[in-house]
Amino acid sequence: MPFWGAAGYSATAGSLTDADTLDQLDSDEFLQVDNNLDDVGTAAAARTNLGLAGVADGAAGADLIGMTTITETGANATVQSVIEALITELKDTTDSSAGADLIGATAISGWTGGDIQTILEAAKVYVDGLIAAANAVVYAGTLAGDASVYPAADAGDLYVISSAGTLAVTGPVVAAGDMVLCDTDSSAEGNHATVGANWNAIERNLDVATASTPGIVQVGKDIVCTAPLTVNAGTNLDDCLPGADADVTFAVGAASTSASGVVELAIASEVNTGTSTTLAVTPDALAGSNLGIRYFEVTCYDYTTTTAVADGVGYFFIPPGLDGMDLVYANAMSVTAGTTSGATTVQVRNLTDSQDMLSGNISIAYGDLVGTAGTVDTADSHDAVATNDRLRIDCDAVCEVEAEGLIVCLGFQLP
User: Fold this and answer.
1) What is the DSSP string of 181-193?
2) SS3 272
3) 10 Å Cβ neighbour count for 269?
4) SS3 breakdown of the chain: % helix, strand, coil, rounded to 5?
5) Is the Cβ–Cβ distance between 198 and 209 less than 8 Å?
6) pTM as predicted
7) What is the pLDDT of residue 228?
8) Side-chain-facing half-sphere of 305: CA atoms under 13 Å
9) Which domains, from first to last, does the chain contain?
C-alpha cells in the first residue's frame, strides 16, 4: 500500500507505524492514499496508525486535528478543544450570553427575536398575558389562618390555608385546607376591613349544619310541614329552603270564619255567586264582579209627562268616586207604554268629550215598559269617564202614540 510524497518518494503503510515516522514527513508535502485502500479492515488500521481512532482524554483523534481559531471559542486550535469550548458556551446561563442566546431560530409571526432565548422569553410574556386576561385561577402559595393581612394579589390568585384562625383580623374563620381566592386585579395588601371585599373564602371541610352553626344540609324533594313553621321577618321560603326542587306542602287546614288557615282567592264570577264561606275576595275580583258596578238612574220625563224627541232630556255629571271607570250598562223604562207602532230610543252623550257613548241606542218598543239595553261604544275609550265629565241624555225617537215618563239607568265599573 504505497503513499506518494510531493517530493517524489514513496513509502509503504507498513513503514508508517508511529508518530515519529509521521514527523519525518515534510508537513508541506501532500500525501495521497492509494485507491487500493478499499477494504474496511485496511482503512481501520490506517486510522489507528495515524492516531485518529483514539478516544482517550488528551489523545483523542479530535485532539490531533487542527483548525483555525474561532473568536467566540477563544484560542482553541483543535477540533477537540473547540467542541469542548462550544459545549461550555451552550451550557452558559448568564443573562445575554446563555447558550439559548447563541442558537438561532426562524422568526415567529407576532413575536420578536431571532434566537431561542428571545423567542422563549416572548412565549412566556404571551402565555402570562393569556392567563392574566382570563383571570385564571393560579396557585399562589399557602397562607396562615391567623395572618393579619391578605397579601397583595391579582384576580385568580389562590392561597391554601395552612392553619386555623381568623383571617386578616376580622375576616372569616378558616381551617387548614380551606382556600381564599382573590377576585380583583392589583388588590393591595391589607386587613379584612380594607381589602376583604376583594377576597372569597372557600370552605373545604364544612360539618353538618346545626341550629347554631352554618353547614351542610340535605334538602328533601317534597317537604311536608306537620307543625307550625316560623319564618323570620323579611325572609321567604326560598331563603329558608335553598335548593328545594319541588313544591313545599303544608299540612294546614282551610280557613273558616272561626279558624285561621289556608284560603283560596275568589274570582269575579264566584263573588257574583256569593255562596262560598271559605273563598277570600281580592280587590280585583270585587271590582270585576256585579258588586263592582255602580248604578245611577236619571228621571228624564216625569211619570205622567208624554215623551218627545229632544236633546238634553236629562243630565248627569261624574263624581270623584266614578273617576277612571267605564260605562258598562245603559237602559231605560217608561211609566206608561207607548202604543200603535215605533219605539222610544235614547242616546247618552259625553258633552265633555263631545262623543256619543252608545254605538246602539237604548230601545223601548211600543207596548213595552222596559227597554233593550243600548250597546256601549268601547272603541277609542268612548266608554271612559273622568271626574266632572258632563253626560247628556237625548231622546232620539218616540212611539206613534207616545209613552209617558222616561227613567234612564246607567252602570259604571272599573276597567
Assistant:
1) EE-STTBPSB-HH
2) helix
3) 11
4) 20, 30, 45
5) no
6) 0.43
7) 56
8) 10
9) 2-53 (no CATH), 138-202 (no CATH), 293-413 (2.60.120)
